[in-house]
Amino acid sequence: MATKIQLRRDTAADWTSGNPTLAAGEFAWESDTNRYKIGDGATAWNSLGYADTLSTLGDLSVTGSTISSPSNADLTLTTSGTGTVNLENLKIGTSGSTVTTILDEDNLASDSATALATQQSIKAYVDTQIATEDTIAELNDTTITGTPADNEVLAYDSSSSKWINQTPAEASLVSLTGSETLTNKTLASPTFTTNFTIGSATITEAELEILDGATVTTAELNIIDGDTSASSVTLADADRMVVNDNGTMKQVAVTDMTTYIGDPIAMAIALG
Prior knowledge:
Layout: E1 8-10, H1 12-18, E2 27-30, E3 35-38, E4 61-63, E5 66-68, E6 101-103, E7 115-117, H2 119-132, E8 142-143, E9 153-157, E10 162-166, E11 196-198, E12 201-203, H3 205-213, H4 218-224, E13 240-245, E14 248-253, H5 254-261, H6 264-270
Parallel strand pairs: 1-2, 6-7, 8-10
Antiparallel strand pairs: 2-3, 4-5, 9-10, 11-12, 13-14
């Protein structure tokens, strides 16, 4: 008759609850974790270390399904020749997705939440997306209507939440060559390179130069313009009068007028 040997076995919870002290060399197995301990005849279960922690791998520790390296040391997995390290499920940290595969898929069509992509696939996908949106008109938040003309701008339209092409006038901007009406605008030190019009009057640079050199008061302009008010003035030889000298306005002394007209008293006597 064959001899049958059975090891002491129980669940991890029952071993912890009972907390027995195993005899020296006695083997005890946790049936639900597949881990085991070997007694030393003195240490109770809860204080006794697991015997399935291997110490024959140098500093590497294997406890159950956990492989640990010494503190601050790297853990490196390498293969021989053309072999590969096969990982069925990979999770970094204690949260996030579990990675099950690495795909070489240029269009990323699987849209997987558990797959990574190769560098080549990522580059191919990005290149394809850029190739289909390589002009402004192809951007999702931009609308280009008709054939854009020179100097058109992109202006944001809040009603459609899109950028649209507009002429400077449509976008309420001032163009360099167009004709726009400015309302309530202040021009700081502007330079006009040609004539400009106020109402129906066109003002030239030459006319402005004349005004720029004039030293005249409003009262003097009003007199020339036909002001009929008068004041008492005693004429003296040094006083001046304005005459039109063959198209040119000049000032002449009162004595010049006397010379031209002659002695008014002598003329009155001669005339009787």
